[in-house]
Amino acid sequence: MPTSREQVAQPGGRVPGAQPLALMRIAHGFRDPTGVTAANDGSGRLFVTERAGRIRIVLRDGTVLPEPFLDLTVAGPGLPFPEVAAGFIEQGLWSMALHPRFRENGHIFVHIASLRQNGTGMVLRYTVDPESPDAISEQRAEATRHLVLRIPQPEAHHNGGMIAFGPDGYLYVGRGDGGWPAAAQEPGRDLGRLIRIDVAAEDGPYRIPPDNPFLGPLTALQDFAIRAAMQLGLASLDALERWVRPRQRSWAIGLRNPYSFHFDHRTGDLFITDVGEAHWEEIDWQPAGSRGGENYGWPLNEAAYCRPATGPEADCAIHGTLPVAQIPHIQTWPGAEPLRADWGCSAIGLGVANYAGMTSTYLVGDWCSGRVWGLAWDQDAERWQMQEFMRTRLQFTGGTVDAEGKVIAVNCNCAYGDNAGTQNLPGSLWRFVPADAVPPGAILADAAGPE
Fold it and tell me: How many domains, the chain?
């Protein structure tokens, strides 16, 4: 873990052992895709989330099924308006996660930012009918819909987005600061942090993991009393949310907009990409043995630098845990000479690669520049290294690791504006493969090497 600014990696290094990569298109035709999830159930299926509120299935051979796996753009008898209404690029359906026992219980979880509620974040659970594994009907969705978590949002941006299950079986939820930067330094808020909850119970609300770092004064007896009151109908989920304080859900704080994060399937380590403000993007890292409670410094620092930036000198204090890497914007401080290479503006984590000569290498794309970097620990140099692998014309929005261990990514063709994605050109699904293993006829991203 870096202990000084000088130890924080920036583009320009070399990832040990990394071979040249190619980016190969798997499927096309998605409307503002925001993420992708691998089924990991032996089927080879991939689930692509679309911002407007649909989840599409991609089969092993790249076929996109015409019928959505789940469609949250429709209203039903029990819900007189669509679950998702996306009219701004930070609203809509952001992420999907499959329960660790998905093969047994069929549970899927989605994270949405509701336009109708000013970006309020909601984590919802639905259950697949085993007789219809490739589509959750409107009736099935209505019958199995379960509200897991509801987080009010003060502003309609900085929503965070990704959800994922960790190696510990708990559900992690990325939440941005909601336009209230100071909230990221307050453990009693639900903003600017990673949340960690236990959703193992089939009925009733989630539980707080007993080893969460900000448990506060709620005792086991109080927790038992609250749940007993709920079972007797004397308390509601909203009441529980008020009593079980938001601080108890928090796993790490001091983040601005942790839109994406990924666990290394080899080690269990956690990488977090935190979208920056004016001058720097940052990538944070937690070793598998972390007990949580990290404070990544926002809004007191932006990456390893001062906020607000006043010049090239970094003479401010470091608050909390330093990132392991940072990516500069075109201007690293007001009035700085614009950079020609190695810049970004909205870092998107794609997944941890353990192939093509790479070991525990976090692939990071950029929504603005289309650049792709790899980040890894260099044992010989005893420092983190960040290498630019390629430049594309893609707007990366999410990624994961598929059942074969390859990093896959989605891109949109979208603008930071007010539409639900249906007016934009379609996006695609891609796979990172060794450059010398591209099959004949494959469609590759228009990629160039770094200068």
Answer: 1
Q: Give which of 395, 358, 285 is closest to 14, Cα–Cα.
A: 358
* Structural domain containing residue 19: 5-437
Do 5 and 322 contact (CB within 8 A), yes or no?
A: yes
Nearest CA to 283 out of 298, 271, 293 is that of: 271
Location of structure tokens 């708990």: 170
DSSP string covering 381-399: TTEEEEEEEEE-S-EEEEE
CATH number at residue 198: 2.120.10.30
From residue 31, alpha-carbon distances to 136, 366, 393, 422, 423 in Å are: 19, 19, 17, 6, 8
**Whole-number Cα distances in Å, 428 to 94, 105, 395:** 16, 30, 10
- Other C-beta atoms within 10 Å of 450: how many? 14
450 domain-assigned: no
Short-list 72, 215, 61, 42, CA closest to 140: 72
Q: 79 lies in a domain?
A: yes
Tens digits of per-residue pLDDT, 306-349? Answer: 998 888 877 788 999 999 999 999 999 999 999 988 999 999 99
In a domain, 136, yes or no: yes
Residue 314 within any structural domain of the chain: yes
Given CA atoms 414, 71, 86, 257 in this order, what sign does their dihedral have?
A: negative
What is the model's pTM? 0.93
How many CA atoms lie less than 13 Å away from 337 in the CB half-sphere? 2
